[in-house]
Write a structure and sequence with these properties.
The protein is α+β, with helices and mostly antiparallel strands. It contains eight helices and nine strands. The protein binds flavin mononucleotide. Flavin mononucleotide binds next to β8. The site of flavin mononucleotide has 9 residues, from β8.
Length: about 240
Amino acid sequence: MGIGQQFIKATNSDMPQNAGREQGLQQPYLEVLYDGKSELVQIPEPDFLDDVEGSFLELIELRSSVRQYSGEEMTLKQLSLLLWCTQGVKMVTDRTVRNVPSAGGRHAFETYLLIRNVEGITPGVYRFLAIEHLLVKVGGEEMMNEIASRGCTQPIVQTASVVFFWAAQVDRMTWRFGERGYRYLMIDAGHICQNLYLTAGAIKFGACAIGAFDDNAMNEILGLDGENAFVLYGASVGK
Ligand SMILES: Cc1cc2nc3c(=O)[nH]c(=O)nc-3n(C[C@H](O)[C@H](O)[C@H](O)COP(=O)(O)O)c2cc1C
């Protein structure tokens, strides 16, 4: 039996899942905490974002993967809207309530951004603090170029205004669902990226999903251990 079939079998609903919650473990934090030292970057708050015009059906029907970008700058408001629609937090209780669905409301992703061409933001790598709706700087241009040269070498990573990378924070999901939670991580990632496609379309930008990248290099560059935290999915956005 191949590894894929083994995975589906082992995460079947009949199997013991070893969820952390059932073992009495404390619930993991709802986001990877800010270290208190790194540079923070303010972005427009969700309340101040403009609604977007256009037909909903047209937005869905015209969605396609866009890989050619003009190099036009993205505004801070546009970046904020993309973050709001993909991972924005509407309410915090014992979990977060966001603009995308997530199994058990676990929302087990951290959003990393490779920012090349956004109004007023120094090019580099940032992480979205979803609860605070802020960016925290992770690295400068050097890290950004490392990602483009060995993490993900597709041309879209070099020409997009912003590239999103969604990193799973596994324990946030498996605490509730155990091994079956790995299925939900993959499903959840799809919802996030679809909202990115549609929001990008609504503001007349183009997006392209990214599933092909060097896992080890991406995780190493972003300082993720590759087991409890790893990049699962990404997408480029440009005009
Ligand atoms: C899970 C997934 C991974 C993908 N990875 C890439 C990728 O790494 N690079 C790329 O150029 N397109 C990628 N795509 C985009 C697909 O190639 C694209 O969705 C498909 O060709 C259909 O075209 P459309 O999106 O324009 O309808 C990916 C799409 C999905 C859903």
